[in-house]
Design goal:
The chain contains 13 helices and 14 strands. By secondary structure, it is an alpha/beta fold. It folds into two domains: 234 residues, Type I PLP-dependent aspartate aminotransferase-like (Major domain) (Aspartate Aminotransferase, domain 2, 3-Layer(aba) Sandwich), CATH 3.40.640.10; 127 residues, Aspartate Aminotransferase, domain 1 (Alpha-Beta Complex), CATH 3.90.1150. Helix 3 packs parallel to helix 9. The radius of gyration is 21 Å and the shape is globular. The two termini are 16 Å apart.
Length: 382
């Protein structure tokens, strides 16, 4: 079987064409009015997102890394304070901790859902621990009920990294539901162009139900200003441009539709791969909906000394199918984050995942023909 379509990890063009008229009109309005900075679309998108998330405050800013940095600054974290996060994640989560002179404390993750291991988390709490950064990896929530209970027990902040899971719902044991990012002290997301809610460049938002914290987040993102030219604290320059807000305002209306399309593609993949001995399909948490920012397989039986994954990836590429490795190197093995505190055997799950995960194309425009070609090819080669 062959396909004439170019297969991409993310099809931004196909998605754009379906909303072209709305997006073009929104961008043209910004250009016509020359309201490129802090224009009406920024406030309108902020309000729309607050309503969607059912959260009191959304504070837009420039990118997801900025959001994490501003959140930690607003919470008053100081050099030497420890912040716990997962070793199996993108570098930005830990990068910001180190950038601010804080101490990143990396822990292992769960083997099925890839989220932070709450037992490892609690074992690593010390008198210096001030915050936890759970990463809602690949599209579903970490175990927030347990994380929040631990945070309450030890009086810690919870900074949710929602870069990959905007729109996911978490369900507590009492049946209460809440959106990812609205449960902890503050949530930080990213609108980078490949995200589920992505703009056409860079952007992000922080959200919280805490009035005082929201005011501080906003102040820090605007050079520490309480009013124009009055700088009460040291801040940064981090804002969402109006053109990006205009794009996001359109795409937010389609976010749940996009999640449904991604879930349909994931269901197709699951059905094809579930019984293959070398392929382990993603496990969906019973406590969270999944918005499938990534569809990530585990390759069973893979060991670090062979190159099965690399060969499979090369063979797929020869057939026109891209595949990515998120993430090939654990953070605790990165030179920037090595520490004497970590010992051999501390991260068995993370190290296994880094050696065995493989992500397939996942986006809103995958049709049955393309999915059939991808799955049949993977099954032939695996």
């Amino acid at each position: 079987m062959i396909t004439t379509k170019k297969i991409q990890m993310v099809d931004l063009k196909g998605q754009y064409l379906k909303i072209k008229d709305e997006v073009d009109a929104g961008i043209q309005e910004v250009i016509n009015t020359t309201t490129f900075i802090n224009g009406p679309a920024v406030k309108e998108f902020q309000s729309d997102l607050e309503e969607y998330l059912n959260v009191k405050h959304v504070i837009p800013c420039a990118n997801g890394t900025d959001a994490l940095q501003i959140a930690m600054m607003a919470l008053g974290l100081k050099p030497g304070d420890e912040v716990i996060t997962a070793s199996f994640t993108y570098v930005a989560t830990a990068e910001v901790i180190g950038l601010l002179g804080l101490t990143p404390v990396l822990v292992d993750v769960n083997p099925d859902t890839f989220d932070i291991d709450v037992n490892a988390l609690e074992r690593n709490i010390t008198s210096k621990t001030k915050a936890i950064v759970p990463v809602h990896l690949f599209g579903q929530c970490a175990d927030l009920e347990q994380i929040m209970a631990i945070a309450k027990k030890y009086n810690l902040y919870v900074i949710e990294d929602v870069a990959q899971a905007i729109g996911a719902d978490y369900t507590f044991s009492d049946g209460k539901r809440a959106k990812a990012g609205t449960i902890g002290t503050v949530g930080c997301t990213s609108f980078f162009l490949i995200k589920n809610l992505g703009c056409y460049g860079d952007g992000c938002a922080m959200y919280t139900n805490d009035d005082e914290l929201a005011a501080k987040l906003k102040m820090i993102s605007q050079h520490g200003q309480s009013v124009l030219y009055k700088h009460d604290i040291v801040g940064v320059n981090s804002r969402l441009d109006t053109i990006q807000a205009a794009v996001l305002k359109v795409k937010l209306k389609h976010l749940d539709e996009y999640a449904s399309a991604r879930n349909a593609a994931a269901d197709f993949y699951d059905k094809a791969f579930v019984n293959h001995p070398k392929l382990k399909v993603p496990v969906r948490s019973k406590k969270s909906t999944h918005v499938f920012h990534q569809y990530t397989l585990q390759l069973n039986g893979v060991v670090s000394t062979d190159n099965y994954r690399g060969k499979l990836r090369e063979q797929l590429a020869e057939k026109g199918i891209p595949a990515m490795i998120y993430y090939p190197i654990p953070l605790h093995h990165q030179k920037a984050f090595t520490s004497e505190r970590y010992k051999d055997g501390d991260f068995p799950v993370t190290e296994k995942l880094c050696a065995s995960v493989l992500s397939l194309p996942m986006h809103t425009e995958l049709d049955e023909e393309t999915l059939t070609y991808i799955t049949k090819t993977v099954l032939e080669l695996a």
